[in-house]
Amino acid sequence: RKMASSGQTRVVWRHIGLHGHSVGTFTADIAAIQWKSAIVGSEDVSTSRLIPAKSLEGAKWTVFGRSGHLRVQTSKESGLKHEMRFDGFPQGDFDKLKQALQDFYNVTLEKLSMSSAAIPKKRKSQEDEEDDDEEDEEDPPLKPKKETKKPKLSADSAKSTSKKRKDPNAPKKGASAYMFFVKKNRARVKAMNPDATFGELAKLVAGQFKELSPDEKKVYQDMEKKDKARYKEEMSTYVKPASDDDDDDDDDGDTGKGGKKKRKKKDPNAPKRGMSAFMLYSNAIRARVKEENPELSFGGLAKEISQKFKQLSDEERAKWDKKAAADKARYLSEMAAYKAKKAGDDD
């Protein structure tokens, strides 16, 4: 049997994702590369992959965010997908993986930069470049454009062009194929890149969506078609609420800039709304968490409290839910008394 330079006859990585599917275990030995999903009985289309040693033709390594990604190319004779991608390798394991592929399969792991891994831009043909050169030579210098002043809108015009309020009961628009992919894979990508920022995570998910094969992408495109059909059907029976334009005409000039209605002042004597279980919990522990973590920003403090709230036991959570229910009952009782008093004062 062949063995790696370290003396091992098998190397194993856990928490490795098969691109577009779940997380599992990646194993490389003299016979084959094998990946097996860690989720038993999942709805995932693929629960395992086996790539025989003789089917391997090449391997490429790229880094996105804080993890490494392996692309394995297979021969046409194998009947397997030409390229498979595995995500979530530690960046520092490049040399270990390269040595294993070289020892077991005599395949050299090629390290690609982000620029070379990206999709190349479409090149212009020679004729297009020549046309561009001719246009540059013949085009006369541009004349400065005259500044045109935009006409000021009257109060009535501004009022008519103001943004309409969205009906909360209106049917929800159909989601795109990309959004369906994000919903299914974002948690998986986040688990493989726990230190990635929100922006980095978005780039990782978008990059994986672009690299889907036509067959893999069709799954999400079918979801998009189905959801758009659902939206169209719901819109056919949807009735828009009556416009509030007539009510606006009865206002006694109580408008601000642009014809927008001024916001009514809140009565300082009105009862305070009931707090949610999370807000009650946050108010109770905020000072202590801030003292224990003085370096946290306002946003970081909110995240820390949110994490602690999610980790509460069922018994602890029930205690805060009970407090929230009591506060809601207090608000409803005080509100009923407040409205009755206000009606009596008006009379």
Q: Could you describe the 3D structure shown?
A:
45% of the residues lie in helices and 16% in strands. With 347 residues, it is of the alpha+beta class. An eight-stranded mixed β-sheet has the order 4-3-2-1-7-6-5-8. Keywords: DNA-binding, Nucleus. Residues 171-239, 271-339 form the HMG box domain. Residues 117-178, 209-275 are annotated as: Disordered. This is HMG box domain-containing protein.
**What integer value in Å does the Rg equal?**
31 Å
Question: What's the helical proportion of residues?
Answer: 40-55%
The biggest beta sheet is recorded as: 8 strands, mixed
- What fraction strand? 15-25%
What's the structural blueprint in terms of helices and strands?
Layout: E1 10-18, E2 23-29, E3 32-37, E4 48-52, E5 56-64, E6 67-74, E7 83-90, H1 94-105, E8 109-111, H2 114-117, H3 126-138, H4 155-161, H5 177-192, H6 198-210, H7 214-236, H8 245-249, H9 277-292, H10 298-310, H11 314-346
Parallel strand pairs: 5-8
Antiparallel strand pairs: 1-2, 1-7, 2-3, 3-4, 5-6, 6-7
Task: Summarize this structure as a short list of keywords or feature phrases.
single chain, 347 residues, alpha+beta, PH-domain like, DNA Binding (I), subunit A, eight-stranded mixed sheet, 8 strands, 16% strand, DNA binding, HMG_box_dom, PH-like_dom_sf, HMGB
